[in-house]
Amino acid sequence: MRTKLFHRSHPLLTTALALLALAGCETYDPGNPLIGRWTLIAPIGLGTADAEAGGMGMALGTYEFRRSSMRMRGLGFEQPVSYSVSGNTVTVLPESFGPTLAIELIDSDTARLKDPLTGGLMTLRRVR
User: Fold this and answer.
1) Which residues form the signal peptide (predicted)?
2) Helix or strand or coil: residue 98?
3) Least CB-packed of 92, 94, 104, 116 within 10 Å?
4) Higher-scoring residue by pLDDT: 67, 25
């Protein structure tokens, strides 16, 4: 009886594993170090207080960079994008409307983004 149950559920298990593998492909790109979830932090206060340098910062939300899209978690907004990687800089190019983002990677868990509207520097921290 146990063998019959396994044979009946086997196609469902195979389908579930295939769907999981496909979903994983969207979040895997070994040539793009930006792929993954990041928290955007803006410096607050006067002077040059910078979250990266130990200053104060305010989290502005979580962003997920996927192989062919950028998702602003919490807002439910997802935009198709493409990427250009040159050295430590990843350029995020929207496929429709939106600003181009130039993101400089400091290390594997920290990046710097120049706000395209205000010109201010913000920090991205990888979410594990």
Assistant:
1) 1-23
2) coil
3) 116
4) 67
